[in-house]
């Protein structure tokens, strides 16, 4: 087993036979900086929620999962054996509600990724319909930048661009409908796709987790203000309150924020999957 990449949250290893081991750590990253304090169980919660969604979305699009159990014992529960993919250099984002960077873009331009929206929307509003708002995976600033659909067409070609938009919105819609039936709003989500060895467009990385999505309790939703977050927005908001300038190193997370984050990730996992989480 060869370690080939250390991401802000995930580590990748190359396994015998060419498969990739994707390991979700307990690290938390905000504003592209990994904070020094881990969140216990976070990696396992992300990995197992992703695995649950990958299985549920298998009739929509192929995914990279080979096995969630045939993994090294030291990474059991927090890793999956995956097919290697040639990743598409576009972050595929679906938005059903107005929040985060999408809210900022709308307030400035009245549109997100070139998609015009009705005037007068406020933070937390539900959009008339879900929209595809892709971003770059690589930019000169080191941060994701919004792309118009025409820019995606130029980057990866018409057929792939249209298929990515179609799949992103279908996955989001299917996930949001399931979550809504269990009291959870999925405001937006980020997906990543790649091509497998046969050239098949394949869903990779993670899917509909608290690191890649905004999850809100439906019974507390109230447009016009920030929403209660079952996702890492809670840690982002705390980090801003410290006066941190969003450059490395990040601040240590106090114990009460660690525990509240753990509880929020656990609650949304249990609501969505219907399973009871047993703390590690």
Task: Describe, in short, the structure shown.
The protein is of the alpha+beta class and 280 residues long. It has helices at 42-56, 100-109, 149-156, 158-180, 233-241, 255-273; strands at 2-6, 10-14, 20-24, 29-30, 33-34, 65-67, 79-82, 86-87, 90-97, 111-112, 115-116, 126-132, 135-136, 184-195, 201-204, 213-217.
* Percent of residues in beta strands: 25-35%
Rg for CA atoms: 18 Å
Largest sheet: 7 strands, antiparallel
Count of individual helical segments: 6
Portion of residues in helices?
25-40%
Query: What spatial form do the alpha-carbon principal axes imply?
Result: globular
- SSE string, helices as H and strands as E: EEEEEHEEEEHEEEEHHEEEHH
Uncertain parts: none
Please report the total strand number as a whole number: 16
Structural class: alpha+beta
Pathway: Purine metabolism; IMP biosynthesis via de novo pathway; 5-amino-1-(5-phospho-D-ribosyl)imidazole-4-carboxamide from 5-amino-1-(5-phospho-D-ribosyl)imidazole-4-carboxylate: step 1/2
InterPro entries: SAICAR_synt/ADE2_N, SAICAR_synth, SAICAR_synthetase_CS
EC number: 6.3.2.6
Pfam families: SAICAR_synt (PF01259)
Name the descriptors.
280 residues; alpha+beta; 5-stranded antiparallel sheet; 16 strands
Overall description:
The protein is an alpha+beta fold and 280 residues long. The protein is built from six helices and 16 strands. A hairpin with a 2-residue loop joins strand 10 (111-112) and strand 11 (115-116). The longest helix has 23 residues, at 158-180. The two termini are 25 Å apart. The model has no long low-confidence stretch (mean pLDDT 96).
């Amino acid at each position: 087993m060869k370690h080939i990449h250390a991401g802000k949250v995930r580590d990748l290893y190359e396994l015998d036979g060419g498969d990739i081991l994707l390991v979700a750590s307990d690290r938390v990253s905000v504003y592209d900086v990994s904070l020094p304090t881990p969140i216990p169980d976070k990696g396992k919660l992300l990995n197992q929620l992703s695995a649950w969604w990958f299985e549920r979305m298998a009739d929509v699009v192929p995914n990279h999962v080979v096995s969630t159990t045939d993994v090294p014992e030291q990474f059991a529960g927090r890793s999956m054996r995956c097919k290697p993919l040639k990743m598409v250099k576009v972050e595929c984002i679906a938005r059903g509600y107005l929040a985060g960077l999408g809210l900022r873009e709308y307030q400035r331009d009245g549109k997100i990724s070139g998609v015009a929206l009705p005037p007068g929307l406020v933070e937390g509003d539900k959009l008339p319909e879900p929209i595809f708002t892709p971003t770059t995976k690589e930019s000169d600033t080191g941060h994701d930048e919004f792309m118009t659909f025409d820019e995606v067409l130029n980057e990866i070609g018409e057929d792939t661009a249209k298929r990515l938009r179609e799949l992103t919105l279908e996955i989001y819609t299917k996930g949001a409908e399931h979550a809504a039936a269990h009291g959870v709003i999925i405001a937006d989500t980020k997906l990543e796709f790649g091509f497998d060895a046969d050239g098949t467009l394949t869903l990779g990385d993670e899917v509909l987790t608290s690191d890649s999505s905004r999850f809100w309790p439906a019974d507390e939703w109230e447009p016009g203000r920030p929403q209660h977050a079952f996702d890492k927005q809670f840690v982002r908001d705390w980090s801003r309150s410290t006066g941190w300038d969003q450059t490395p190193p990040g601040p240590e997370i106090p114990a009460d924020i660690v525990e509240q984050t753990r509880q929020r990730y656990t609650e949304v996992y249990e609501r969505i999957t219907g399973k009871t989480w047993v703390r590690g």
